[in-house]
């Protein structure tokens, strides 16, 4: 029986889809991953507090509620030991509510949005859009953060009728003025109470920045009064849930596959690698991390280009070390990162867009991404190590190389390889429609990735010790 049709594949894919439907924003993704870690015995740390770490301990720390860094310390860790690290990212291209969002036209109330990342924005038209994110409110002199999720569709961006297009064969739109979602009609807004909200004074609020009826709605979601709201960070998303689809239920259809597949599978790989007693005999630290803001370059405090990773690693090494110097630098030589970000499967309608000898396929296994101009961080050394681990895990590997006449994307892999001077390999699961509001992947990739990552965590210290570069 093909792996794609196995019950194990279906069960793993369904668990991922359940996570995906809850992780509607980076904030919600971190909330869900934190719950998984806590239920498995991980202890939460805070940046601003002292860390007390010990071998065989399991810990995690978050930043901005949108980035997470989880680690389990090997029982045989000693000064000079390294890290076995897998990373992904939590963000995806999206429309986000502007700081001042009051828009109206043709007797409709609209919401101003900013484009985030390189989305296929035409796919956002004619979708039932929900809104979710994080809201900050002030009560009793204190600021509070609250996750919110409408779940229901409250916004829509209707297409222009084909009859009104200047050129029916080539439809275009302006992202600033023609990508504004409709919230409601002015008539119903007036009936339902869109009158101004009185400010109590004495504190910050955003009453003048958004439609009153929208703020009242958000206040109900957050269990606060609209005049208490100080700020918000909200994303639009497709309210139709991700699903397992296809004649043989072999595909995953949904938003945010890029890159919640990577974020989820690296965490699951870490958790499942701890199911046996291998951690007690491990000399390395096993790390799974997922960062925010990759889709816009990672240049943020919670992005992979920040010093957050180095500071976490140095704190761990210093906490576990003795008076010996250069523990971090020594450990890097026994370390490796897998950068897990989605990969382009060959599109059946556009086969010429792929390089002739590098055509990743569904159910073909995890994709290794290679670029000789260093848009990906894979080297011959890291590729060889991964091949050995994949062979041991029984996971097939594919390879992706972009055509010479096309631009190549990138990942957090080259950033981390550069900042940390650590050996890195770029991989991903194959998918179609990347950056669309409805992306398309295969079910077997989930379990292939998890199996590969489990084996990496368990075997990398032995492989690198025996490897003679």
UniProtKB/TrEMBL annotation:
<dbReference type="Pfam" id="PF02127">
    <property type="entry name" value="Peptidase_M18"/>
</dbReference>
<comment type="similarity">
    <text>Belongs to the peptidase M18 family.</text>
</comment>
<dbReference type="GO" id="GO:0005737">
    <property type="term" value="C:cytoplasm"/>
</dbReference>
<dbReference type="InterPro" id="IPR023358">
    <property type="entry name" value="Peptidase_M18_dom2"/>
</dbReference>
<keyword id="KW-0479">Metal-binding</keyword>
<dbReference type="GO" id="GO:0008237">
    <property type="term" value="F:metallopeptidase activity"/>
</dbReference>
<dbReference type="GO" id="GO:0008270">
    <property type="term" value="F:zinc ion binding"/>
</dbReference>
<keyword id="KW-0482">Metalloprotease</keyword>
<protein>
    <recommendedName>
        <fullName>Aspartyl aminopeptidase</fullName>
        <ecNumber>3.4.11.21</ecNumber>
    </recommendedName>
</protein>
<dbReference type="GO" id="GO:0004177">
    <property type="term" value="F:aminopeptidase activity"/>
</dbReference>
<dbReference type="InterPro" id="IPR001948">
    <property type="entry name" value="Peptidase_M18"/>
</dbReference>
<dbReference type="GO" id="GO:0006508">
    <property type="term" value="P:proteolysis"/>
</dbReference>
<keyword id="KW-0862">Zinc</keyword>
<keyword id="KW-0031">Aminopeptidase</keyword>
<keyword id="KW-0378">Hydrolase</keyword>
<comment type="subunit">
    <text>Tetrahedron-shaped homododecamer built from six homodimers.</text>
</comment>
<keyword id="KW-0645">Protease</keyword>
């Amino acid at each position: 029986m093909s792996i794609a049709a196995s019950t194990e594949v279906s069960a793993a894919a369904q668990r991922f889809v359940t996570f995906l439907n809850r992780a509607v924003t980076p904030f919600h993704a971190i909330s869900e991953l934190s719950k998984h870690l806590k239920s498995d015995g991980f202890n939460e740390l805070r940046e601003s507090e002292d860390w007390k770490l010990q071998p065989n301990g399991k810990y995690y720390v978050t930043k901005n509620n949108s980035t997470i860094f989880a680690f389990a310390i090997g029982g045989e860790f000693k000064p000079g030991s390294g890290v076995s690290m897998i990373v992904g990212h939590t963000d995806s291209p999206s429309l986000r509510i502007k700081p001042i969002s009051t828009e109206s036209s043709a007797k409709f109330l609209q919401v101003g949005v900013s484009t985030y990342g390189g989305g296929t924005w035409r796919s956002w038209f004619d979708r039932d859009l929900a809104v979710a994110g994080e809201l900050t409110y002030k009560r009793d002199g204190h600021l509070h953060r609250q996750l919110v999720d409408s779940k229901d569709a409250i916004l829509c961006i209707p297409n222009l009728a084909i009859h009104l297009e200047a050129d029916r064969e080539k439809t275009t739109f302006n992202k600033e003025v023609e990508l504004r979602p409709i919230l409601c009609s002015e008539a119903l807004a007036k009936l339902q109470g869109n009158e101004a909200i009185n400010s109590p004074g004495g504190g910050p609020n955003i009453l003048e920045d958004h439609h009153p009826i929208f703020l009242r709605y958000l206040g109900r979601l957050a269990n606060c009064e609209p005049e208490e709201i100080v700020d918000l960070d909200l994303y639009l998303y497709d309210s139709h849930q991700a699903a397992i689809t296809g004649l043989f239920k072999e595909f995953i259809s949904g938003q945010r596959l890029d890159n919640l597949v990577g974020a989820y599978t690296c965490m699951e790989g870490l958790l499942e690698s701890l199911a046996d007693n291998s951690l007690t005999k491990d000399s390395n630290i096993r790390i799974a991390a997922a960062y925010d803001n990759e889709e816009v370059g990672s240049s943020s405090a919670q992005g992979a280009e920040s010093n957050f990773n180095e500071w976490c690693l140095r704190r761990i090494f210093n906490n576990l070390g003795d008076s010996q110097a250069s523990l971090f630098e020594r450990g890097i030589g026994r370390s490796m990162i897998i950068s897990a970000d989605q990969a382009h499967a060959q599109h059946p309608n556009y086969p010429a867009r792929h390089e002739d000898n590098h055509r990743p396929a569904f159910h073909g296994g995890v994709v290794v991404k290679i670029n000789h101009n260093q848009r990906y961080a894979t080297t011959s050394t890291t590729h060889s190590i991964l091949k050995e681990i994949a062979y041991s895990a029984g996971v097939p590997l594919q390879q992706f190389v972009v055509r010479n006449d096309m631009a190549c994307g990138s990942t957090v892999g080259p950033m981390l390889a550069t900042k940390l001077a650590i050996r890195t390999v770029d991989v991903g699961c194959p998918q179609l429609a990347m950056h669309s509001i409805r992306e398309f992947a295969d079910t077997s990739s989930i379990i292939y990735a998890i199996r590969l990552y489990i084996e990496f965590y368990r075997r990398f210290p032995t492989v690198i010790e025996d490897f003679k570069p």
